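Lab meeting notes turned into a lecture example. A postdoc, R.K., suggested we walk through two folding results consecutively so the class can see how the record format repeats. The first protein's sequence and structure tokens come next.
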Amino acid sequence: MTPEAGRITSQELRSHQWYGTDGLRSFSHRARTRQLGYLPEEHLGKPVIAILNTWSDINPCHVHLRDRAQAVKRGVWQAGGFPLEFPVSTLSETFQKPTPMLYRNMLAMETEELLRSYPVDGAVLLGGCDKSTPALLMGAASVDLPAVFVPAGPMLPGHWRNEVLGSGTDMWKYWDDKRAGLIGDCEMAELESGLARSPGHCMTMGTASTLTAAAEALGVTVPGASSIPAVDSGHDRMAAQSGLAIVELVWRQRKLSDILTAQAYEDAVATVLALGGSTNAVIHLIAMAGRSGIKLTLDDFDRIARTVPVLANLRPGGKYLMEDFHFAGGLPGFLARLTDVLHLDRPTVAHDTLREQLDGALVHNSDVIRERDNPLADEGGVAVLRGNLCPDGAVIKHIAAEPHLLRHTGPAVVFDDYQEMQRTINDPAAALTPDHVLVLRNAGPKGGPGMPEYGMLPIPDYLLKQGVRDMVRLSDARMSGTSYGACVLHIAPESHVGGPLALVRTGDLITLDVEARLLHLDVPEEELSRRRAEWTPPANRYERGYGALYQDQITQADTGCDFAFLARPGEVPDPYAG
């Protein structure tokens, strides 16, 4: 059979190795497919599409994805493909301890090995909660099949009395109000039922919305997918459209490597920064780019940040929520206001060029998606810091901090771990003032373990009662993308491996200067050398299991916290299906 121009034949499908030959193994594969209840006409000669589903009963962000998988199947069948659903690890940001970041690379490995080892021609990846988006795309990029990402979508806006609530962001706000004595248990009980009203991930510009927007900017979703509310009927239609799209991608053999180019990653960085997105995107995009064989660095983020304004007026740095963003034009409308900094001639999963994809995109509310001459901030929302306290870099989401703290010098108050901080932060004997710099260490990739979201250190109760709502806080941890404040994060190298953060002592002066991109420990080098000689490495936390693999292989924040053996280049052969 002669293929159409630019399209492969059924004999060139990867799944043909399993199903289409005359050998014993192929006979066995066909027989076992009959055992599953499928007719030959349903699957032979058709693209086999894996639907990787991160649904779980304990993941509220993904609890609707069981239904969305059915919509994806509907689209695959309509396009003449054969869908097969695979359950994969669910990374519930809310419930998984010590942190789902510990398990991001496990889902990435599972994704890679599942797609490599089964008779799969293409994949639809269902995720959205913070770590699932990068994990699925990291694994899929390592296999390099055609793939489409289906974002879980944001939940509905929260409500309490006469206020519209943003998940995460308003949790932090009202919890501080409770600690300050401004509201009580009755109000908190009401807030429990109003903060998160539906399936879907956080509807602020937290990590989930940031990463799904980055996926759309990369070109691996259908247009507009990242902002559709999870329970909107449009979300079902988007899932079906993704099923249609993946079959066409398989026939055209448009692989992820054709989509995930260096230009695509630059555009994703610009998108994240112009959205005022989560600091977590820095780690994840660096790791994702690494799996695509592309070197993305902290310096790239800082360089691009100086070229793009913040145009999304979204919490925690702005006013609105994701449903407002969606109906204001979503990411297509948003990107239409950034075309001068984007690479418009690269392909996406839905169009031959991003230019074609954005043609006709409109913005319907210029307070939600700002005009270029009326930005929320003149520069991108994340700054990269350097200095003797973070020789390999640190980050701060400065648009979510009180402006007076963006240039600050104050004495350090050091906590050796998160539990110590919880025990002692409210001790009046510490006599903390708003000028102090709170320092948390041993919360990084190895020390956390898993780099938990401890970076928004709590302000002492007695200062909250005085009206203090922000202080300079430093750590080698991460923080939730829904958080806010003058929090310096991802300090690298981390303290657990002997980074300068391990040498800080209470009373040392620390200078933060965001405009100068500086984080400096005001201690003479001779004294730091003496402290370094006295420092003793802490014991490893794990003696066996996945944790032992993690602590042996995890890289630092500035290089994406991938596993060294997964991040390095090298060929992996396709299995012999014989």
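The second example is placed directly after the first for contrast:
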Amino acid sequence: MNRLLSRLRLDSLRSRLMLLVALAITPIAIMTLLGGVREREAAIRASQENLQRLTGLAAANEAQSIERARQILVDLVSVPDLMGDARGCNALLADVLDRNEGYVNFGLIALNGDITCSAVPMLHPVNLGDRRHFRRAIAERRFIAGDYIFGRVIRKHTINLTYPVTDRSGKVVAVVFSAMDLAGLDTFVNDINLPLGSILETADAGGALISRRPDPERWFGKKISPSLLAAMRDPALRPVVLLGEDGIERLHAFARVGGPSLSEYTVTIGVPMEIITAAAREAQLVSLLGLGVTTMLALLAAWLAGDILIVQRVRKLMDTARRIAAGELGARTGIGYSREEIGRLAAALDEMATTLQAKEAARSQAERELRAADQRKDEFLAMLAHELRNPLAPISTGAHLLKLLHSDNAQITQTCAIIARQVEHMTSLVDDLLDVSRVTRGLVSLSTQVLDLRKVVDDAAEQIRPLITARRHKVVLELPLDTARVKGDHKRLVQVVANLLGNATKYTPEGGHIQLRLAEDGDDYLLTVADDGIGMEPALVERVFDLFTQAERTPDRSQGGLGLGLALARSLVELHGGSVSAASAGSGKGSTFTVRLPRFTQEAESPVAEAVRHAATAQAPLRVLVVDDNLDAAHTLNLFLAAGGHRVEIAYNGQDAIAMATSFAPQVCLLDIGLPDMDGNELARRLRRLPQTAGAVLVAATGYGRQQDRDAARDAGFDHYMVKPVNTVQLSELLAQAGAATR
């Protein structure tokens, strides 16, 4: 129903109200149309009756003419001079012709067909032996009204009426005839008034016209149409509607001219249907016009009444609903709360707005409280991360420095590498602490590079080795011999694999088996972590990657996390253009997690990258200013930079840094943000205004890692932003680029 209304575009209250009015008027319209049809049929029936009487009158009048001719011929047969000598016979017939109007000749035909005497003198002998009426008169021994002929002697349109002449023994000895002028056949019907466009026709047995009104002379002897001839030959002589040769549709009625013993002529009168139905059509037109006016007035009333009583009030409801939806909860309809439907709807809408207004006030208050709590949480996490990074910075720098100074001692080198990796892992944990909200909103950023997935697996396995050792798990790593190159963030991918391996160790009993397999699959790499642990039910498999989702905890798995690991893993994998899935045969049958990552296609090294690579190997000595209020962090960073051949000066507050920069003119400045006298952003602005450091490379080295901290540093004029503990590899590359630019 709704689809039908939509197709008819009846999608408003007024249009539907008008539709109801139209439906209500439809029965009246149908009755009006049916009444018009009945009036038309009644007019046709009345016309048929009148036309039948009129046609019968015309046929009777023509029958009188033919009956008069028959009586004349009967009287002639009784005159003795008719069969006498030719002179007396001619005189007799001429006298009869003079006494009777409407005839063009009288004559006597011998049995051989020759005309022996005639009222009209004949210039040459005439034989009528081939005439059908002559042969019928002899054969049937009665009066015969012949078909249409064009007279051979008199040269006029006629019909020949014949009567046999018999002797005393009853034998036919001759045939007397009269030739009736067709122009006089209609003498008795000239007074009949016919409507304009009507026709009156008389046809013989062969369908030739012997009488026609109007314009008879033009139609004498012509054949009527086959359809009209068929209607004339119908024994019932039913009235029919026929299309004339002039394209006018007429109602025809038929009548025989006398009985079968008198003639075989048929009279028809045809009256145009347009005239017959004109009165009914006019009446129907008036009815339809009245119906149309009534319908228009009803629809107009429905339109205006619907607009005033319904549409305007509904618009108020709609406007109020839109204002409420837009947040204007104080909006009200202003419609009286009557007992009718719109009033009740207005009351319900206003009540809903009042309720929403109260709930919105409560929600706004709760939102403000949550926002304040969230702000305090962010500030606490930022401060916590800063305080945690400060001790990590000298540890990391000291480890790299020991490795650099004692590169020939394998144990020291290995120990330094372990310290560096664990510091890096602790740093990533601090970063994750700040990234929780960004992970849930999909705002984690990646630092991508081409890397080997095998190294990712090794680093991840090293991170969870203590847990594997503690639970005596048997771990099998199946890695390809060739490099598995992908493009991604090494730290984040290590985090993904570590989360999957850590998840397997948590939910696999002591002494269980864990298998990690890395293999190619078309254009991707498949990394599969399978265990023979507690497994998962199908319902858990479907939501295992949702936040805070965990299997049932038992005492031996009390160290399980908050249910963030797998959710974080899925988000990070999807950021790398990959996918992760889980499968399990059921409870107690282990679980399998599969990571799909796209393979890296080798690309040509760009000229810029090649220049940076050469600059990184050049290690040109630079003047570097280190500003940090943490003495350990500042001195370890000084030792690392000095080992690289750079000249280093240290300042522990902003004022000393400005004074030192004026005389030292550093090319690179490593600035902490949280300084005692002024923050690092203000220090950066002042250094940019000094001619000695206007073009220096400013690097922020801080424990704050929030996005707003990075944005503030960029606005202050920093070129780079590094979170403590500073990645010495990245710092070396940065210094190499600065050295190349200086040269």
